[in-house]
């Protein structure tokens, strides 16, 4: 009997210790998730206790090998988490010790997620050379990781910092990109030759600077490349948007099966889709001449659509009046004189806002088609066209043929004009909210493509463009000096 009592007491003590252990674990989990913090989830939320938000700062690398002629390299890297989400850095030209100083924020990631980073040397027009890679698990702190080649040879050291915080926002999709919103601008000479996007008639940088008003010439960075007269550039832009699932949820726009042109693309010969994907790679090729930057507010979009500043526009207008012979030069280009142009866009399934200018020429229209921007994906988040409109009575018509005044504001008029994907007009309010969220301070109006007010604004913009032909040699064709090449602050 005493033996039974002893066993009973032992079992009871073990059970008590187990309950205490479970209670301690529960307290530690509560501490980790910080349930008292504003916006923290409750026990019924869907965010697991072990999920974390990550804030990376990729500082740079040291001691990379020379991969190019001239004993230098043009390095960039691709980071990914568990193969679920990736980040591509800017290209740092001509260096073995690149400084990136780039940030990457990701929400709702397992606390033991694996980070893999691959470092490459960019070869324009050729296959990029693989330098090396490393893997590590995520955690707070400063990291110095050895970059190893496939042969395990040491190829340098990469430095980055990482801060983790518990995920507190319920219903956050796993591996959600959370900024900072960044962009790259790609200028394709190949598509430019095809589309006929003439750069300028100036022979060299000396002539280019001589033709500009003093204020304009002085403001240009000396490192800005000026292509020769034969250069033809067609620009595309790629903005990595944050929070797209917050607005669109699980909604995707499948290609429109009732649209004959879409049928030819998606059910026609495989060669059609292969050609479109090949053209997409050309349009969005990462080269040492790409521009990279971060988005702080709406101005970072307007600046891209017209690369110089407003004062230069006023100087350019005076110069044009005095000397009509320079009408076709970049002297008339100005940052806040946003180009009167229509842009074709998609928000792809990777949450990237891709767009380029569309035009009347068949070739330019081809280069701006939605399937091309989407790399022939069978679905996208959304698609359509947009244009900038001055916030004046009657919009573009209110300018009456003159340059906008210095205090004019701009708004974005965006629609669902895509025959390829036929986006649901019920999602237009979500589209507007998504754009406003990613470009703070921007004014947006979203329209169904059949809207009469929208059609009139496009017509007015076209007529204004015809009255100011020099403004048509701006955003899509000029390698601007507002964003430094190969760097992100």
Structure explained in plain terms:
With about 500 residues, the chain is an alpha+beta fold. It is globular. It has helices spanning about 1-35, 190-195, 205-210, 215-220, 245-250, 260-265, 270-285, 300-305, 310-320, 360-365, 370-375, 430-440, 450-465, and strands at about 50-60, 75-80, 85-90, 100-110, 115-120, 130-135, 140-150, 155-165, 175, 180-190, 235-240, 255, 290-295, 340-345, 350-360, 380, 380-390, 410-415, 445. It folds into two domains: about 50-175, Sandwich (Immunoglobulin-like); about 180-470, no CATH class. Helix 12 (about 430-440) links the parallel strand 18 (about 410-415) and strand 19. The protein has 13 helices and 19 strands. It has an eight-stranded mixed β-sheet. The protein has a five-stranded antiparallel β-sheet with strand order 7-8-1-4-9, with no helix packed on it. The chain has a four-stranded antiparallel β-sheet with strand order 3-2-5-6, with no helix packed on it.
**Strand segment tally:** 19
Major beta-sheet overview: 8 strands, mixed
Provide the domain count: 2
Provide the low-confidence segments as ranges: 10-44, 194-231, 326-335, 474-489
Q: State the end-to-end distance.
A: 78 Å
Average pLDDT level: 76
What's the shape?
A: globular
Q: Helix proportion of residues, in percent?
A: 25-40%
Q: How many helix segments?
A: 13
Strand order of the largest sheet: 13-10-11-15-14-17-18-19
Proportion of beta-strand residues:
25-35%
Keywords: Calcium, Metal-binding
GO molecular function: metal ion binding
Pfam family, one: C2
InterPro entries: C2_dom (IPR000008), C2_domain_sf (IPR035892)
């Amino acid at each position: 009997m005493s033996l039974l009592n002893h066993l009973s007491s032992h079992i009871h003590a073990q059970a008590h210790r187990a309950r205490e252990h479970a209670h301690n674990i529960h307290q530690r989990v509560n501490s980790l998730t910080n349930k008292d913090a504003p916006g923290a989830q409750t026990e019924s939320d869907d965010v697991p206790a072990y999920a974390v938000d990550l804030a990376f700062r990729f500082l740079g690398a040291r001691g990379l090998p020379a991969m190019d002629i001239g004993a230098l390299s043009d390095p960039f890297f691709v980071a990914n988490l568990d193969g679920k989400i990736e980040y591509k850095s800017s290209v740092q030209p001509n260096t073995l010790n690149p400084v990136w100083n780039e940030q990457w924020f990701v929400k709702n990631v397992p606390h033991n997620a694996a980070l893999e980073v691959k470092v490459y040397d960019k070869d324009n027009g050729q296959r990029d050379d693989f330098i090396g890679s490393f893997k590590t698990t995520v955690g707070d702190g400063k990291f110095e990781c050895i970059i190893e080649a496939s042969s395990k040879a040491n190829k340098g050291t990469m430095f980055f910092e990482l801060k983790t915080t518990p995920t507190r926002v319920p219903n956050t999709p796993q591996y959600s990109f959370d900024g900072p919103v960044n962009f790259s601008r790609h200028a394709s000479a190949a598509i430019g030759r095809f589309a006929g996007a003439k750069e300028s008639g100036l022979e060299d940088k000396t002539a280019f600077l001589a033709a500009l008003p003093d204020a304009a010439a002085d403001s240009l960075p000396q490192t800005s490349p000026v292509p020769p007269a034969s250069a033809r550039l067609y620009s595309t832009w790629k903005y990595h948007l944050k929070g797209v699932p917050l607005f669109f949820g699980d909604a995707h726009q499948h290609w429109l099966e009732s649209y004959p042109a879409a049928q030819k693309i998606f059910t026609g010969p495989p060669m059609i889709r292969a050609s479109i994907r090949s053209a997409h790679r050309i349009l969005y090729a990462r080269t040492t001449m790409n521009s990279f930057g971060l988005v702080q507010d709406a101005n970072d979009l307007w600046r891209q659509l017209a690369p110089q500043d407003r004062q230069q526009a006023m100087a350019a207008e005076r110069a044009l009046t005095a000397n009509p012979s320079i009408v076709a030069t970049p002297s008339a280009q100005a940052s806040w004189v946003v180009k009167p142009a229509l842009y074709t866009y998609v928000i792809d399934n990777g949450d990237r806002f891709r767009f380029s200018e569309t035009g009347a020429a068949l070739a330019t229209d081809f280069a701006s088609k939605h399937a091309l921007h989407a790399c022939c994906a069978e679905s996208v988040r959304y698609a359509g066209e947009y244009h900038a409109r001055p916030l004046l009575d009657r919009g573009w018509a209110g300018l009456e043929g003159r340059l906008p005044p210095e205090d004019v504001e701009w708004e974005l008029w965006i629609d669902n004009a895509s025959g390829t994907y036929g986006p649901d007009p019920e999602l237009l309010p979500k589209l507007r909210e998504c754009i406003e969220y990613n470009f703070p301070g921007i004014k947006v109006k979203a329209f169904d493509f059949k809207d009469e007010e929208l059609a009139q604004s496009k017509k007015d913009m076209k007529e204004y463009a015809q009255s100011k032909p020099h403004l048509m040699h701006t955003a899509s064709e000029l390698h601007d000096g507002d964003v430094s090449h190969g760097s992100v602050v």
